[in-house]
Specification:
This protein is mostly helical. It contains six helices and no strands.
């Protein structure tokens, strides 16, 4: 496993940890029912994800500070899979997600004011579903 001292997981040995790879590793371990087999330090992993949340509810992907709706989904999905979703500020995370929701088509952009993209619709809806906040979506506008 490529878990770093900070708790995040990287794509390969010698690479920086990132929320994308952290979620992928957790998904693989969950698929094999191996989350509690000692392959990763869950408490460090949780602390890493928590450290990426910003005051506005957004999440950095890594220590370099890029913000993207995808990273919010990754953080929420990761913590949900390890039963630690309560460790982040859900309300501000959802507030950021909804700022990425576009009034024109009901889709989601990577950041507030960005154009909608199908992959980001998945991330926005997925994060809202995990947090139990799908009622915030204008389903008719989005075309659901």
């Amino acid at each position: 496993m490529c878990q770093h001292e900070c708790g995040g997981i990287s794509a390969s040995i010698g690479h920086d940890p990132h929320i994308l790879y952290t979620l992928s590793a957790v998904q693989i371990l969950a698929t094999y029912d191996a989350l509690n087999d000692g392959h990763v330090d869950i408490e460090k992993l949780v602390q890493y994800v928590k450290s990426l949340q910003q005051e506005d509810g957004s999440f950095f992907g890594d220590k370099w500070g890029e913000v993207d709706l995808r990273f919010s989904f990754c953080a929420i999905a990761t913590l949900s899979l390890v039963d630690k979703l309560n460790e982040i500020d859900i309300d501000t995370a959802v507030c950021f997600i909804m700022k990425c929701n576009n009034d024109i088509d009901g889709g989601f952009g990577s950041k507030p004011g960005s154009e909608s993209h199908a992959g980001l619709v998945y991330c926005g809806l997925g994060a809202l579903s995990i947090t139990g906040r799908l009622e915030m979506i204008d389903a008719e506008l989005l075309g659901l």
